[in-house]
Amino acid sequence: MQSQEYNQGVQAEVQQLFTHVDKDRSGKISQRELQAALITAQGSNFSDTACNLMISMFDHDRSGTIDVHEFQLLYSYINQWLAVFRSCDKDQTGHIEEGELSHEPQADVCGSVYRYLCADTEVH
User: Fold this and answer.
1) pLDDT value at position 27?
2) Residue 103 to residue 99: CA distance in whole angstroms
3) Residue 51 above 50 pLDDT?
4) In sequence order, what DSSP letters do the residues of 47-105 get, joined into one string?
């Protein structure tokens, strides 16, 4: 268990989520713990690859796990992308269709996301 001094600067909501996800109480979240906690809109778990990528993006000490501070960064990152997704999903279906990517006032952000995601794929 981590000391309160170490957890200073961590939002209470993030600390609570971290404690819930850290099933083995190691003070670190493993890929498996993260995967068990993250559920897609379709009700399935994120892939091993996606969870490993998320951990590697925020695992600043290269331990293969994320601590509470690294988890706070991941939490913020996920919420930022979720906000972009929701702003583009005009009809709130949980899917973004091509036509939703050109609506104002988020056209620049949504269009940029669309171009980035479709850069190497053929869009039908």
Assistant:
1) 95
2) 8
3) yes
4) PHHHHHHHHHHH-TT-SSSB-HHHHHHHHHHHHHHHHHHHHH-TT-SS---GGGGG-SS
Residue in this structure with the two tokens 């509470």, named with its chain if needed: 68
**Same domain for 24 and 40?**
yes
- In the predicted structure, residue 112 carries a pLDDT above the cut 70: no
Which CATH number do you get for residue 49? 1.10.238.10
Same domain, 102 and 81: no
Residue 94's Cβ-count burial label (10 Å; 0-12, 13-18, 19+) is: exposed
* Helix pair 12-21, 68-88: axis angle to 10 deg: 100
- The alpha carbon dihedral of 18, 54, 41, 10 has a sign of positive
List C-alpha distances in Å: 104 to 10, 18, 46, 63, 73: 35, 36, 31, 43, 29
> Is the domain of 81 the same as that of 23?
yes
What's the CA gap between 51 and 31, in Å, rounded?
A: 6
Domain contains 123: yes
Two tokens, residue 33:
């713990």
